[in-house]
Amino acid sequence: MGPVKLALPAWGIPQWLVAVTLLFLLGLALWAGLLAVTWMPGSTYSGQLPPLTADERFSARLLEKHTMVLARDIGPRNIWRPGSMGSTVDYLAKVLHELGYTVHPQKFDSYGVPTVNLEVEIPGSWRVEDIIVIGAHYDSVEGSPGANDNGSGVAALLEMARQLSDARPQRTIRLVFFANEEAPFYYSWDMGSRHYAHRAHNKGEKIVAMLSLETIGCYKFDAGSQRYPFPFSLFYPNTADFIAFVGNYQSRRLVRRLIEVFRNHTLLPSEGIAAPGFITGIGWSDHWSFWKEGYPALMVTDTAFFRSEEYHTPGDTAKKLDYERMARLVNGLTATIRVLAE
C-alpha cells in the first residue's frame, strides 16, 4: 500500500494574503517581545532640573575629588602597573577606614600577579541572610586615565559608602571594589567579580540583588547624541541625558523594582532594559559574573561607548565628567538601596 496523501480543504485564500498575515503576526510577536524587555514602571523625569540641594552639592565635590585622585593623580590602573593598583587600593582603604568601615580584602592571583578585591559590609538587622551587593571596578584600560571608566563608578561607590555609614538596614549591604574588569580579563576567571561571585555561590550566600556602577559620568544634551544597537532606537530617546538600568531578562524583576523606586526618589532622567544577555553591551561589566552564578544583577550606566567618544582613550579625563548629575544619581541610588534593604 502506497503513502496516504491528505488533502487540505481549498478555501480559496490567496497566497499573498497568507504571507501578509504571517508577516503581520511575526511583526506583532517581535514587537511584543521588545516591549517585554523595554517596559519599565513609572515615568522618567523630564523638564528642567531644579538646583542642587546642599547635600547634593557636597556630594558633587566629593565625587570630583575621588575621580581626580584616581584619574589625574594615579592614572591608568591595571595589574601591569603594580604601583598604580597599589596606590588605588591604599586610597580606597584609607577613605573607607576614615568612614568607620572594616575593610575585608579578597586576594587572588591573576597572570601570576597578586590582586585584590576590597569589601565593606553593613550587616542586616533582620533578614541578615539577604545580601545586596553594590560594586564597581577600579582598574582601567592601558593608556587611559579611566575617569569615567571607571573612576566615576568607584567615586560613586565611595560616596554611597559615606551616605550609608549610618544605615541600619534589615538586609545586609555589601560595597565591593573589584579588580580586573577590563580587557583582557572580562568574561574570564581573572575578573575580580568572577572570583567574588563564585566564592559567594560556593558559600551558599543569598545575594538578592547586585548593582554594578559602570561609567556614570557622561551626559549630553544634543539630539542624536545617544546611540543604540538596532532596534532599540525605536524605544529610547536619542538625547544622552539619562542614566540606564541594564539587566538580562532573568533579572527583569530586579531591574523594574529598582528603576521604579529610583524614579520615585530621584529628579534625573532614567531608562531601563531587561534583555537577553547576548545583546551588545547588556553584559559588559561585573554584573555578568553574578549572572554566571545565578544571581539577579544589573548595571547602572551612562551607556559608555554608545554616547562617549572618550571611552577607552587618553581623553577619558576627570574634567569632562558631569559631577552635578552624578551627585543626583548617587543620592537617588542611596535612597533606592535604603528602600530595597528594608
What is the gist of this entry?
The chain is of the alpha/beta class and 342 residues long. It is 37% helix and 17% strand.
Please provide a written account of the structure.
The model has no long low-confidence stretch (mean pLDDT 93). This protein is of the alpha/beta class and 342 residues long. 37% of the residues lie in helices and 17% in strands. Strands 1-2-4-3-5-8-6-7 form an eight-stranded mixed sheet, sandwiched between helices. β3 (130-137), α4 (147-163) and β4 form a beta-alpha-beta unit.
User: If you consult CATH, what is the topology?
Assistant: Aminopeptidase
Read across the widest sheet, the strand sequence of neighbours is 1-2-4-3-5-8-6-7
Question: Helix-strand pattern, N to C?
Answer: HHHEEEHEHEEHEHEH
What global shape is seen?
A: globular
Determine the number of helices (DSSP H or I, runs of at least 4 residues): 8
User: Structural class per helix/strand content?
Assistant: alpha/beta
Largest sheet composition: 8 strands, mixed
CA-based gyration radius:
23 Å
CATH architecture: 3-Layer(aba) Sandwich
Mean pLDDT: 93
N→C terminal distance:
73 Å
Assembly annotation: single chain
Q: Kindly state the number of beta strands.
A: 8
- Estimated helix fraction: 25-40%
The CATH superfamily turns out to be: Zn peptidases
